[in-house]
Design brief:
single chain, about 375 residues, alpha/beta, TIM Barrel
Length: about 375
Amino acid sequence: MMRTDFDQSRRQFVKTFAVTTIMTTLDPLFAQSLKRRRLKLGFDNFSIRAMGWKAPQLLDYAAMLKVDTVLFSDLDVYENHNDSYLKEIKKKADDLGIEVQAGTGSICPSAKSFSPRFGAADEHLALAIRVAKTLGSAVVRCYQGTADDRKLPGGLEERWKDTIKVCKSVRSRAIDAGVKIAIENHAGDMQAWELVNLIEECGRDYVGATLDSGNATWTLEDPLRNLEVLGPYAVTTGIRDSAVWENAEGAVVQWTAMGEGQVDWQKYFDRFLDLCPGVPVQLEIISGFQRQYQYLKEDFWKYYQDVRAYEFTRFSAMARSGKPRDPFKVPEGKDRKVADQEYQKSELEKSIKYCREVLGLGLKA
């Protein structure tokens, strides 16, 4: 871990915390107007992927930010997967008062994004469950695939069959470990109703959802509608804001920091409290780039025949109300890696600030 990076983040956080404290002290109405929502607040390590930090550095950073939780969403965040090492990570997290949730990537052997690095799909998922158990995580976040799988032979339907088969193969292992397989609506692979059907087919006793508000827009869904359908199945989350606007060929989606997109977060988290009580809010901030959806072209729908009319109507309304944004660009003369690191940390830290000061999230604030 680069000490200068950590010190810079710490100074920025202390400055932000001090300003908030002064405002609350000098203006009682400011403090009274903040609606407290007793939801754990944390982040997914993918939010600051450019840092390349391993679990110990991420825990130090989480402690500096005074968050409640952290989601280690990949298996590469650890130096190794030995129980002795993982127990050291758990002890460090416990000492810092941070809840750890564990995760991995694709568990579908026929998905384009599946990697054999950790063995066959069932072996991969079994390893992730063991890691989660050793860390004291009640969930193991994972996903099926991406929107690219829609174009494979058999489309999403064949991927569903393979994912369900893998989950069922480790059912007893997950139940014995006390770990729920938390499948994410990921990168345009499934709408909320499709993931619900997959979970029901596997069995809710050991499979739940990783509710991802940003990925909803990648399947032509309004995040609030996605919450209504998927919320009752959620056991963890990946939360970020989205901007959507129309163009000549359909619409453009750009993810943003919290509070800078179009999602009505006050309404979202009021409903979240009803549907997902006790589920942590894990920020997965992935800002700055754009994705085109050319749904005014006929051939687009060949791969999106599963999209339901009501879901698309809500998404379309969101697009009509949106305005174009500029994507992130590395400043001229700036090193790309340094620019990405600074940008990702800035986007995450201001999102945490927004969640605390505007939405009243977090137990430690």
